[in-house]
Amino acid sequence: MNIIKIILLNLLIISFSYASTFEELSSKLSDKSFKVKEEVLNELIVNYKEEDKLEILLQNMLAGNLYFNPTTNEILVSQNENFKSLFTNENVQTQEDFSKIKINNKLRSVIKSGLAKINLFSKNIEKRLKAAKNILANLEQEDAAIVSEALASEKNSSVKEILLESDTNLKAKFSTGPEQIEAIKKLGDFLSAKSLETLTALSETSSDEEIKKVAHTSVIQIEGSKSFYSFVETAFFGLSQGSVLLLAAIGLAITFGVMKVINMAHGELIMIGAYTTYTIQQLMPNLIEYSIIIAIPAAFIVSGIVGILIERLVIRHLYGRPLETLLATFGVSLVLQQIVRTVYSPLNQEVKTPSWMSGALEVNPALFLTYNRLYIIIFSLLVFFAILYVMKKTSLGLKVRAVSQNRPIARAMGIKSSFIDAATFGIGSGIAGVAGVALSQLTNVGPNLGQAYIVDSFMVVVFGGVGNLWGTLIAAFSLGELNKFIEPLAGAVLAKVIILVFIILFIQKRPRGLFPQKGRDAQD
What we know:
The structure is a single chain. The chain is mainly alpha-helical. It is built from 21 helices and seven strands. The chain has helices at about 1-15, 20-25, 35-45, 50-65, 105-120, 125-135, 145-155, 155-175, 175-185, 195-205, 210-260, 265-285, 290-315, 320-345, 370-395, 395-405, 405-410, 415-440, 450-465, 470-490, 490-510, and strands spanning about 65-70, 75-80, 80-85, 90, 100, 360-365, 365-370. The strands form two sheets. Strands 4-3-2-1-5 form a five-stranded antiparallel β-sheet. The chain is elongated and about 100 Å long.
């Protein structure tokens, strides 16, 4: 028996002795015999699985795009009626005597298995992860051997988790007895659509009552986990909306709290920040990856300057007359909208998202956290704590608090309230511009962008307590979460109505909000 094995091994070595390179061996795929092609493919997969060209060869052979040039013994790849050499990657002039390399079902199985081996045992983790996900999505009984082999050698936890799920699915579907029951129970710990599909099929079609019962229990387990992660995802979107409300309202909390000015142009200052981001991207098309970072200080400066101009030219003449400031700033908002329509057109503009803000963080198959919203949540908190530091730990912040709590006494102490008013309005307006930068990553930029957030901003400020930064933070995230949990039940419009009614009832009980401002002037 051993002698026969040695003879067969020698014959195999002799048959491929002249095919010492990838090019020479792959040229044998032109043979008409499917058996010879199968032997060549197996030899290629075993000896050349690290060769990049092998994956291209297998993919095009599977797609029916592989040809052979009998004149040069080259393997050719057909691309849009053009031919390119697999060996040199150079274009080849079309010839009539090119022969297509044909395959049958058995060869297709060998090719698919070969592609799986190449990718599953690649040194590139991303490649292995993609291959593992592809196998899980298209599981077949023949995949059991390669999944087990890959699972035994895999070190990366993410890839190993997917391979383990594939292995458990295969055992649940194709094994029998206690091993199948145990696999069905374990499937309840996975959350992918494939595992749920396997369990659902077993619970509905299996003739074994025990299998149906265990599968049904695992289905309930998965659906329970999905419900929990759906709750977490809704909470995340609530935090995201709350962070936008925080950025939009924090500037208003400062100006409203210090100056008692009802600034209806605050939404347009947000819009100016968004258009600043758009303008920077138009002026620097090669710096899209850094445009958002550049836009943050630029939007703060531009919106801050516009805010100071509004305060110096309009609001300073109307202090102590809140109704007139409301009407005046409403007129300013209309003027700013018209200027933007004239300069940029009334159509919405698209701001591109940098690649590092695109995509989502996959916590598990049932929970994805989008990067742009995640970054906005972090950014809004950074802005909040930066403003809190300025207000609590700097000379400017001390003067702002003094003016907000008792303006006459602050003046008597030598504080120039007019300068503080202008500086405060500029800071509040600049933060509104920064909010516009964040909003440009969530929605299109248009002349009416700010109008959607002005009412919400006032609600946050009033609910949290006029002039109180911590109150603004808690109110913004509370209203964001409340809105996101009500929306699926009542719809977007009715959700806002419900929140407005809630705030009206709350204000009747606590007219000064969650955290009322302290000081004699705060009583006005």
